[in-house]
Write a structure and sequence with these properties.
- The chain is an alpha/beta fold.
- The protein has one domain: 3-Layer(aba) Sandwich (Rossmann fold), CATH 3.40.50.
- Helix content is 31%, strand content 22%.
- The chain is built from 8 helices and 11 strands.
- The strands form 2 sheets. A 9-stranded mixed β-sheet has the order 3-2-6-7-1-8-9-10-11, sandwiched between helices. A two-stranded antiparallel ribbon has the order 4-5.
- β10 and β11 form a beta hairpin.
- α2 crosses α3, α4 packs across α6 and α6 runs antiparallel to α7.
- The radius of gyration is 19 Å and the shape is globular.
Amino acid sequence: MTTRVSTGSDKLDQMLGGGLLPGTLTVVYGATGIGKTHLGLAFAHHGRSADGAPGLLFDMNARGDSQQHHEYAARLYGWQLGRWTHAVTPMADPYPPSEQMQAYYCDVFPWVGKLSAFQVTTPEGVEFDWNWKATYNHALYTVRPFVYFHLGAGSRRIVVDGIEPMDAPADYVQPFIFDDLYKKIIHRDSETLGMEICLPVWQHRAFIDAHRYDHAEVTTLLLVTTEETQLEHLIARKVAAGDIGAVANTIVVMGSERVGNRLGRFLCVVKHRGSAMSDEIAEYRVTEQGIVLS
């Protein structure tokens, strides 16, 4: 029987045939304010009991913590997220201060908008502006150790929030950044990533060997804001060029519908490769205790 990764919600796990498949990518689509961040925090926090360590949270919003991750985490779970700031440049001391190992929130990817805003035209074609590329590469000095040291300490789930609405995802910078993060850092061999961070390698070989982990066990939840608000429109939503949902293992949509004289919130699973799944549309409420599914 395939091991499952619990979302932190018994009802949603049931709809997913037991939970998410380890090492896969799940995309959650829904309008702003529908409850995606609550769902992501529940998933990340559940790692504390399920995996022995909470999940990591990347906030890619360009407007600061407008989604109130810190406030929600503290109120719902008594969890002080802490902001990761430890950067490791080549040949610098790689090890984070002890307090940083309690920091599970990273916000060094603030870029939004069209790719063209970060590109320049050259005689050979179009390429990224060198100044922006240098700034982006410098941000990776913070991102790589954030992922490496926490996964080495036992975290096995990652939430990426703050993806803004896009008409043609292939034309925007956020999918490019996420693809880079997902393929080159989250799912990079732990020994290789460790050797890129901990230099010179001979000096840190014992640490790298003692903190190996299997990146195929790391499960990622990507929260994408949509212009569509109604559930039926989200279910019928077409996959545009560059849409990350096209390669995701699982897709969950969260939307609203009128129910009599009130507006109800509903959730359903529309894709879940390699597993049975429910075709149920479940109503939920966002309460002082977080998301509660009926």
